[in-house]
Amino acid sequence: MVTMAAVTDRPSDAQVQAWLETVPDPEIPVVSLVDLGIVRGFAWDDDTLVVTVTPTYSGCPATAVIAIDVETTLLENGVEKVRVESQLSPAWTTDWISQEGRRKLHDYGIVPPVDGSACVGALKMTGAAAADIACPRCASKAVERISQFGSTPCKASYRCTDCLEPFDYFKSI
Amino acid sequence: MGVETIRKPADTRVAVKPAFDLALRMGDNALILAQRNAAWCGHAPALEEDIALANVALDLIGQAKLWLGYAGELEGEGRSADDLAFLRDGREFRNVLLVETPNGDFGQTTMRQWLYDSWHHFMLEGLKASSDERIVEIAEKSAKEVAYHLERSTDLVIRLGDGTDESHKRMQDALDYLWPFARELDVADDADRAIAAAGIGPDLASVAEKALAYRSEALSQATLTAPTDAVPRKGGKAGVHSEAFGFMLAEMQVLQRTHPGVKW
């Protein structure tokens, strides 16, 4: 049974949401885990706040850090018991990155994934077209892909053929 | 020794044994290929390729963790993904021989990756229709990553195959050497047949057919020719591995074997 005291001590959902929105992504701290769609939801299991997160790339080394950061933030805000659970399905997609998250990524110099272009496992025989990817510095669409793999698992390396600057593209999955 | 001899588990999950076998095979393939690729870190011929190999390895390790974690749960003896990866002996691994072949030159590593990717992709497509929900979840998650692994390796096979005389020769040599190993993926053994019969995974012949069609188109663009008379080089699925595998495993497991129970 939940006691009256526990109920009054429990922060509101809006408050919990606000706390979660302050947790930055460990590798791209300009965006929050909520912006990226990594935090899937939260619920109370008796007196324990259970936060459900979803892995982005299977081998992303940030996954373990993310769970610790969520737990730490909530504990620091006075939540006494926190449990972070991982949910695999439906699989995370870059389509879940919020508009706010996309704007922050762009301002940071990382081109956000092109809307609705998430890969569902469709096959392409050779290099994908760079349709609709614009250089974050000069906005030129004359860009080329250097490599599908960049400084973190979520990014691909591109180059602008007008201003010649390299840049990161948050690749769609 | 066929499907009918699979013992019926006590609980309601009638397909525990086939699901365990499937998860172990998928997990071991991913883990061992990842370990091989990871050895390129700092040694690849170009920075982008170095990063790509390490990233592919990371994805595969992540996938191996999901598969082996599930295998451990199904086994029900309290073994974690780490226990299965680091505390089993060679004979207990169920990966195909292809993924444990030595790295060779960059062409051989690329060809090995492509042969696996082009099977892996179609295998995961088949696993998305598994009767086991957890396997569907892992397959859907992995398929997104494998799609870009395959895109990369196909691109490289075509560029290097249809490249200079030297790159063409190396890719053809790699194809001739590795093609018989890749065929182990296509040949079903008793466990594979039990997996298909239980609806846990696809019929390997149908996966092989799709992979072959895909590979044929890419190889023609790459101006490479697959051997037509290759006898499958197999044994890995039954735990009979190559000499090179023992050395690789010793390196992969040394930390956990030397310091039992060590935590990061």
Automatic annotation (TrEMBL), chain B:
It comes from the Bacteria. One of its GO terms (cellular component) is cytosol. It holds the Pfam family PaaA_PaaC. One of its GO terms (biological process) is phenylacetate catabolic process. This is Phenylacetate-CoA oxygenase subunit PaaC.
